Amino acid sequence: MSAGALLLWVVIPYVALTIFVVGHVWRYRRDQFMWTSRSTQMLESRWLRWGSTLFHYGTFMAIGGHVIGIAIPAAVPDAFGIDEEAYHLISVSAGTLAGVLVLAGFVILLYRRLRFPRVAATTTRTDLVAYGALTVALVTGVIATSGWNLFVSGYDYRETVAPWFRGIFLLDPNPELMTEPPLIYQIHALSASLLYAVWPFTRLVHAWSYPVQYLGRPYILYRRRYAPARTGGR
To answer: Counting Cβ atoms within 10 Å, is residue 55 exposed (0-12), middle (13-18) or buried (19+)?
Structure first.
């Protein structure tokens, strides 16, 4: 095992994940009032509506694709009769759609932030770092999923990237696996580590604040403050 592989594919991921966990705990304990996306909808809503919708739906699809393609071993789809050719077709098609949606939404949101001075004035330094990490992650992800498979020779990441990723969370990392994938896959994996590290200190923390408890809440009951006036002379 080389020192470079150990640094890139063991040390950096674990440091990033540690910062991710500890940073969220610290942020929640010390900065709950800013645990928000700091919405700028009041400053501009038209571009936000389109950009936010595309970005979030694309992100949900991309996360689902990563869970299926990386977290689930290749033997599982095989057990359901999904061969390599069918899996490749589904992966590229769904991944391309997700990539186009999330990238289009991200570009719209960036344009909006640069185009409208009042929105740009709300941008912080941590926002710029988050945008940089997201840009690298999105661009390399689209190139790896769509460009590499459609216009180059293609690559089966389930034999290297996926087992390396699972090994990180199973505390059994194998950094040598990540010396085999094309450079674009390696950059994408490193950009994900960077994104994990900066996440707790940016507005991305709002991803954990969806009001799930609303699903179990009773309906709001509206009552009159005053009794209605009686009619009929009584």
So the answer is: buried
Which residues lie below 8 Å from residue 51, measured CB to CB, with a gap of 6+?
Answer: 105, 106, 107, 108, 109, 111, 112
- pTM attached to this predicted model: 0.82
Tell me the pLDDT of the chain averaged across its residues: 86
CATH number of 3-216: 1.20.950.20
Closest CA relative to residue 165, chosen from 91, 70, 66: 70
* R_g of the chain, CA atoms, integer Å: 23
Query: ∠ at Cα 34 (191, 17), nearest 5°?
Result: 30
Q: How far apart are CA 176 and CA 70, in angstroms?
A: 17
CA atoms of 31 and 196, how far apart (whole Å): 19
User: What residue spans define the domains of the chain?
Assistant: 3-216
Over 60: is that where the pLDDT of 48 sits?
yes
Residues sharing a CB contact under 8 Å with residue 203, sequence separation 6 or more, in sequence order: 36, 37, 38, 126, 127, 130
